[in-house]
Design goal:
The chain contains 6 helices and 5 strands. With 162 residues, it is an alpha+beta fold. The chain has one domain. Helix 3 (59-79) runs parallel beside helix 6 (136-161).
């Protein structure tokens, strides 16, 4: 295999996809008053019914699925970047780009969510970040999604402009 056929820029997408997958299994939330930590898989599985009111508990599953699919999709554009595979590489890069954009958007929605509760004094609204500290796993998923987004764009840009 000739090294000039290897898309060095596609390696960015592979690294981003690996970061996405790893981030799901690291700490996502730590409840401030209780010092209880939950990883992304716990949030998706609704461990101990702790996340009944938390929206977007599906984000870790989406990140895991998109990370695995992006990992597989970015192998071909990275290794086989010849003119013969230009069209398929563009399609695979576009799919990885769309999947990672979904992860980033869902991650932002998860981070910015809020809860409203009725009290005697009226409705009270709390942000997720008021109740819990956001852990490294969530940030890795967000960064991995952004890196995979860039990596998915690279086969298209390389075949069009380079």
């Amino acid at each position: 295999m000739d090294t000039k056929n290897i898309n060095i820029l596609g390696i960015i997408g592979l690294v981003g996809a690996i970061i996405l997958i790893v981030g799901v299994f690291l700490n996502w939330l730590t409840i401030k008053d209780l010092d209880i930590a939950y990883n992304g898989w716990d949030i998706f599985g609704n461990k101990d019914d702790a996340f009944d009111e938390v929206k977007y508990t599906f984000v870790p599953l989406v990140a895991l699925i998109c990370g695995i699919i992006s990992l597989v999709l970015m192998i071909v554009p990275t290794i086989m970047n010849t003119e013969k595979f230009e069209k398929i590489n563009n399609i695979l890069g576009l799919i990885a780009l769309i999947l990672s954009a979904v992860v980033v958007i869902c991650g932002i929605l998860f981070y910015t969510q809020s809860f409203t509760h009725e009290t005697i004094l009226g409705d009270v609204t709390w942000k997720l970040t008021d109740l819990a500290d956001i852990g490294i796993g969530f940030w890795l998923v967000l960064v991995g999604g952004i890196i995979t987004l860039v990596g998915g764009l690279m086969p298209i840009l390389k075949n069009k402009f380079l």
